[in-house]
Specification:
single chain; 116 residues; alpha+beta; 4 helices
Length: 116
């Protein structure tokens, strides 16, 4: 199953200090995604547009996050280009997925989660 939620990125100059609740690094985003409540993931770690997309998919955003978390993943590579980072996530049996993160307001949020 492929989940696509890539959304256009608007250029906003990030502030020097992360906004409250936003991870300061892409790797910290992954740790927060794995450990935070699904409600917090939807409210703080996903872009508003991505959270809305998951809500419209049925079962609510938190329900979608719970379903995604049933698959154990570990962090692979992190490739950064300016205010965008792509995290490679490795799952069972060699599967890979990606999280496209956007740096805004001094912290990181997911603009897209793409899984196989």
């Amino acid at each position: 199953m492929i989940l696509l939620g890539f959304l256009g990125v608007q250029a906003l100059r990030p502030s020097a200090t992360p906004a409250p609740g936003l991870p300061a690094t892409a790797r910290a985003w992954f740790q927060a995604y794995r450990s935070a409540s699904p409600q917090l993931v939807c409210a703080r770690l996903l872009s508003p547009a991505l959270a809305a997309l998951y809500t419209r998919a049925g079962g609510g955003c938190a329900g979608q996050i719970r379903r995604l978390r049933k698959t154990t993943v570990r962090l692979g590579r992190a490739l950064q280009d300016g205010d965008t980072t792509v995290l490679t996530l490795r799952g069972p049996r060699g599967s890979e997925s990606s999280a496209v993160l956007d740096h805004r307001h001094g912290g990181w949020r997911a603009a897209a989660l793409i899984g196989a």
